Amino acid sequence: AQSVTQPDIHITVSEGASLELRCNYSYGATPYLFWYVQSPGQGLQLLLKYFSGDTLVQGIKGFEAEFKRSQSSFNLRKPSVHWSDAAEYFCAVGARAGGFKTIFGAGTRLFVKA
Amino acid sequence: GAVVSQHPSWVICKSGTSVKIECRSLDFQATTMFWYRQFPKQSLMLMATSNEGSKATYEQGVEKDKFLINHASLTLSTLTVTSAHPEDSSFYICSASFPTGANTEAFFGQGTRLTVV
Questions:
Q1: What is the SS3 assignment for A69?
Q2: How far apart are CA A21 and CA A35, in angstroms?
């Protein structure tokens, strides 16, 4: 069965510092991988996705993620964090199940300090 | 892009009443939709798979008699929380996707915050 592990419940970084959020997945075939961001009380916003091809994926808001099959990882990175990036980040794996089912990790709460 | 709309965005109801949440795919047809629940400070957990024209498939531990799902058309799925209680208070999100295609993704509604008082 598919599963996603986000080992960090919360992370605090200083504004302007770099960021890396970790994600490991378990999936039998080539995975469809996603990163979503959720601000308090809001819905989900898709940051980026990986289906195939180039393993370094660029997303919105200056985020990128790298797919590493050998490590079953899909870590999210940003070179310089802004205070507005403070939010909950979810890594997810998708699979065809009639429609497209999404399995989410537990999430990582990002705090940004001035 | 594909748009999925949920209604209402938030609802407050009295304990013991029922609440219906709608999920619509506005510009595409979806034979399958999914319903998720998110408790405060937790992740999104898949509740059920909604299949157009047939019974929904529920995840283990989800009460099918409490969370009634109807997918009567290719663009609309509804989730009815029956005899709601305070512990049902949560954020409910639906998703839909194109029925075919190797590379695709789920498009999520904006969510419905349910508060049972």
A1: helix
A2: 10
Q: What is the mean pLDDT of residues A50-60?
A: 93
Chain B residues with beta carbon closer than 8 angstroms to that of A102: 34, 44, 46, 95, 106
Report DSSP state, residue A83.
G
Helix or strand holding residue A111 (H, E): strand A108-113
**Using the beta-carbon criterion (under 8 Å), do B30 and A99 form an inter-chain contact?**
yes
Higher per-residue pLDDT: A88 or A100: A88
3-state helix, strand, coil in chain A (%, to 5): 10, 55, 35
Which of A110, A98, A101 is closest to A3 using CA atoms? A101
Q: Of the ranges A52-56, A80-84, A110-114, which one carries the lowest mean pLDDT score? A: A52-56
